[in-house]
## 1
Amino acid sequence: MKGRFGIYGGQYVPETLMSPLAELESAWAEARADPDYVAEMERHRRDFIGRPTPLYFAERLSELHGNRIHLKREDLCHTGAHKVNNALGQALLAVRMGKRRVIAETGAGQHGVAVATLSARFGLDCTVYMGREDMRRQAVNVQRMGLLGAEVREVTAGTMTLKDATSEAIRDWVTNVRTTHYIIGSAVGPHPYPEMVRDLQRVIGDEARAQYLAAEGRLPEVVVACVGGGSNAIGIFTAFLGDEDVRLLGVEAGGSGIAGGRHAASLAAGRPGVLHGALSYLLQDADGQVLPTHSVSAGLDYPGVGPEHSFLRDAERAEYLPVEDADAVAALRLCTKLEGILPALEPAHALHVAGTLPGRVLVCLSGRGDKDLDNLAPD
Amino acid sequence: MLRISNGELGLIPYLMAGHPDRDRSTGAARSLAGLPVAALELGIPFSDPLADGPVIQRAGHAALEAGTTVATCLELAAEVSPRVPVVFMSYVNPILSYGPERFAADSAAAGVAGVILPDLPPEEAGSVASALESKGLATVFMAAPTSSPERIRLICDASRGFVYCVTVTGITGVRSELPEGIAELLGRVRAATRLPVAAGFGISRPEHLRALRGAADAAAVGSAVVNEVAEGRDPAGLVQELLAACR
């Protein structure tokens, strides 16, 4: 079925968005087949983002854990996270579609900063929706978006985090759809977003697989990535889906523990439901109401997950497990001390798992941690 | 399914079930059920209502805080359905969670006439719409200003009971003026169906209703009615004023 990953995905949106989604789908299909679009994206990836990002052997972490850990350095992307890969592709698409206004939701602020950055670069009018709680805990990114000329709109509904910012961005899009392109930040939302975001992020895995083969002469045994909506994870997993011997491991936010209910582990503790336009695993109560979530990392603090991850989970091609706040913070500190690399709290969840695995481990280091300094207790 | 007298514009007031709490919501619904309205739309609250503006968002939040569930919404519907056609309006997730077959059976038992789910376009409606149809309930689909002619045909073919025409490119909420082009849109939808066509979103004032007479068969008024309940007033006062503008 169109826009489905097994039973997951779909287009559960108000009628107002159905024709615009069809237009987006055909615009995206035309763009990706157009050598000019592809060449322009390649050029900006190289000159603006700084791709390819390095694959880095984490020698001291490996020595400590008794395994062999490589990091895919998406933290070295311009703006500090993998989010810019998707924002670039969609900003170029917005220009191509003649839409001069873009909107975005953001949790940690990394996607918001990426969209604000591309909007500055291409002269687009940019509005970013961000929950009040996230604006507080990611204040540096709010300041960056302001400098870049974006308007950050505070969202005070619900838990005032990424879920509510996404709902508000969709309401803006429903209202201004004729002039506005919605640059969704993760591999979530109605078709064609999950596919489009995956295809814009798969550059992570395509590069990493080739780099790993060149460096090690064989493939990793495990690929590990954090999963909120899951765009960096699907971006790195996609290149390895055909490599049946490579284990794919997604790491969700375990918050303060699954048992206590304060977490954001949709795949570990949710059941299928519809949020933000797609059917996927969802944290919801017995009556189908979406549950509040908690994570120390704003970027993973989301009750849903991209539909392709739900499919990969059910198909048992990828495994997903939660990591708690305290373990992620400890992994962040350890990586910084031993490798001189300050990861964001989101990929720190993946780093914790990497430390528990034997053998050859590839970790997607999806972003840098400067934004998280205010959330770490003094050492 | 809609009660409409010849030559009049039918009025469909909306209440959020369980808002602000069970007793006051029941009182408001009973009060409106006694009026000559075309139908009563009852909202089943959802935590993340994408198509709703601030008034209905807040009402839904308050209803959930007050302990409203799909089951209590069914009880409210059963209470008023002998006196007025009841149409549920919700989002797809509470229905999927309750189970489409069970929801259809329990809604039919509660005397509900139809269901509107703004985040369920015809393409995704399969199992939910067939469950409702098997119990004799109408699934009402929405047309919007952005709908292509092909989509308007699809929506009209899939709809039962009536077709809901979203008059604004946007979300629910009170607006001072009706949008331009509304008569043209309603004309396109009416040309595609024999079912009655109801206009909704942004309709709140008597002059809006007077302008819609002849262009639509019915008009839904949501946020303005919900706002009366939120302010502690009996919504029957406003609804009677609106009814006068429909004749």
Note: The domain at 10-245 of chain B is CATH 3.20.20.70 (TIM Barrel).
## 2
Amino acid sequence: MLDLINVSYDTQIPNNVGLSSDKKVLKALERWHPGYINWWNDLIPQNFQESMVYLRTAVSVDPKGWAKFDYVKMPEYRWGVLLAPQVEDRRIPCGEHAGELAWQEVPGEYRNLMKRLIVIQGDTEPGSVEQQRYLGLTAPSLYDMRNLFQVNVEEGRHLWAMVYLLFKYFGKDGREEADDLLRRSSGSEEAPRMLGAFNEETPDWLSFFMFTYFTDRDGKMQLESLAQSGFDPLSRTCRFMLTEEAHHMFVGETGVGRTIQATCEAMVKAGISDPYDTDKVRSLGVIDLPTIQKKLNLHYTLSLDLFGQEVSTNAANAFNAGIKGRYMETRIQDDHRLTGDTYKVLDIVDGVLVERDVPALTAINMRLRDDYIRDASGGVGRWNKIIEKAGIEFELKLPHQAFNRKIGVFAGKDFDPEGNLVTGDEYDRGLPHWLPTHGDGDFIQSLMKPCYEPGKYASWIAPPKVGIDNKPGDFEYVKLHMA
Amino acid sequence: MTKRIDFQVDPSAYRHWRVEYDGPVANLFMDVDEDGGLFDGYQLKLNSYDLGVDIELADIVQRMRFEHPEVKVVVMRSAKDRVFCAGANIRMLGGAKHAHKVNFCKFTNETRNTFEAAEVDSGQKYIAAIKGACAGGGYELALACNHIMLTDDSSSSVALPEVPLLAVLPGTGGLTRVTDKRKVRRDLADVFCSTEEGVRGKRAQEWKLVDEVIPNSKFDETVDARARDFAASSTKPDVDKGIVLTALDRTFHEDGSVTYSTVEVQADRKGRTASITIHGPEGDPPADIAAFTAEGDQAWMLRAARELDDAILHLRLNEPELGLMVFKTQGDPETLLAHEALLMANRDHWLAGEVLQYWKRVLKRIDVTSRSMVALVEHGSCFAGILAEILWAVDRSYMMEDEFEGDNRPMATVTLSDANFGPMPMANGLTRLQTRFLGDDAALAGAEASKGEALEAEAADEAGLVTMILDDIDWEDEIRIFLEERASFSPDAMTGMEANLRFAGPETMETRIFGRLTAWQNWIFTRPNAVGEAGALQRYGTGQRGEFNMERV
């Protein structure tokens, strides 16, 4: 356990921001740190807190060796404050200040807007840890448990990263916001997390994999656009966070892939060729493919909501101010100001889906969502390869973006997963085939039995192809504390 | 924006509000229909409002008093998740003509005032229960309530972001109520009004922006409990049953004229003049207050107030070029005073009280109407008691003196009553006569001594109750010349001059809202920094910031 009174911030908190000599930030951090540790300790069941977990810790920003692996108790994890190296002569990439030198301090006129973006980003990081707090109890293997905890501690570090920015650049307001990041809590009636998807439960491991694949990918897109920020410290912070985020998406993609693998293998072994023969498939102790499709539908659509309204003033303001760019902003060939440009957004006119040109500045959210959809489709293709290889006729698909939406032009409208506007009656009848039912949830729960023996995996998930840090198959990724 | 804006609305046609009546507590839910804007070109997202939304709200507040006198506490809430109210719709403001903006703000200001008047006058208390974002006009709605409760979910906030976000003012009473009503210290108010994201949680309470901050999990039950507490400790007498406000009997004519049962509006577009003639009651008053109540909204005293109110609002919003309003009355002053006397004698009766208070509001509405206004006291007229107040609400009055050839109507008189000495105060807290005779106690005492006397021209002139008396020889020419001259002046200069001259005497929160705040707002509404092509209001939503001329004026 960290000695809270005598934290040596230069040795115990890996950092490249000169923490030990920055009195202002140190003072704020000393005040905030105990609350953070309490938050963490209250979060995850005690026996996991005491367990030794084989985790990677970010210790520098050297691309060749930024992390090291070792056993550590999670409360003693060294949450570092690391910013990607400063780029010489970096310029603001977009908006009305495009081409000017990037800001090293917060410009007063954009202070509130910038703070708000950082707070929203910061709020998602602990939110997902809260959503996943009990999953350790049903881990399908020690390998998966370790991955879960890796994702958790890194989300914790991302919270640190945002809190550092709040302390360093936003004074008293920033300190209050940092406190509130610990006060809000996922699904809480008292003070819920700011974004809807972070108040949903993550009830089982398939949800966790879907979440890390789809929802963390929204996080990636947001970080990508904040990495384009004209506010250099924010850009550098986000660039480094993206290094870690890649692993989270890996956990998601391979997790879903291994689930599909186990299903396909079991079906082939039992000689079942009809993927819709769900009773038979389920009796093999694996999750049937139609249910996996339903889970995909749910998590994908929840994640699309995170991009906000298709046409958004806030997004336009942030882009024009140079605080938040587009995905791969510097690689886009245009004037990066967009004042005269248009962009196509989907809309509904008289019940018909249409594309409509709107000023490009106001369609920043829509554009990022389009980039996300492209990005998210890659893994789905790879999952389908697994099914194809097993010789089963079934194809997973991303549903149409109008389906099951709570935010934006499609909110509350009855679209089916193909993007057809259907009657209320058709919608009600289709729903059990499109989204997980309580029955599906009960079935998945019935499979969620822990499997804590090194090298062993629950029936519904296949082992990974290679171990973490190239460890052998029976490596003990978590030394469980069984008090 | 050429379609006629109708200020009459039937509760069955509400698109934006819902009221749930629960004995002495009414729960008022704001649930604005995004696609229910009064005009094309904007969507009313996030419970933002336009004039149409406010017309419904004004109707609810009015009906609450007449149709639901059993209600002692009204709880204002949002029916939407995560947003209380985002304020006036910015795109609507951006697209509206200056005159519409100004009249929109005036009407919304009058409606906010009725929240407060409901408690002072009738003991109906409005409380705001805020969950989610409450910004700009949204917080101004809350400010008009007499108790503000905010949930402490670490994201719900109150804010007045107009200055940093739009380069205009929180002009629906916001700036004024923060300091004058909530007594927020002025430097904290300065911080609050220039911080776009506003203030939440404990600090909102410490700064007096809200009365209570409540843990989110206990919010709904605390609000319900507070509403019941207020209702239990209310001094408002119990009333079983209200009366129904039925649709007005009115006809709109091609030429702009409007006919009501007691009010006739005659439009003269060429002369830029609207004549408003009020016809006094014809029969005897109801025998007693029970009979009056039985007449419901058909009782002359209530019917005339509703019709006059509607006529004024219609002219303000729909006939901007009729710059001159000429008020006339016809009827028997004694009969009118008999109807009034029934109410004055029963002022403690709920309905009598409500009708008198309503006349007070209608007269205030006339006071702040930015048109040149004149009253003509002709033969056969009934400028007595409450209707005599019109003589001192308008800018000038002319009275017929002696007999006119070929005119056999009763001689023009002015008669004062108790109604002229207290129950119909102006926004400045004084009666119209006190304001008129500011610093001249003798004149005021003289007027009071004449109560009940039908004063003919010479006496009325002597008492200072009219501007000018004219006989048969001069009347026609003088009046014609005055009207023509008046209609030719710059409307801007007229509005400014009249608004200044009408409100002599002390400042109150109300006069500061209609005077200082509104005047500055209307100035800003004409400045390029807000409404120019590159102004903040026009640029809002495009992502580009407003471009400002940085020169201080």
Note: Residues 8 and 247 of chain B are 8 Å apart (CA to CA).
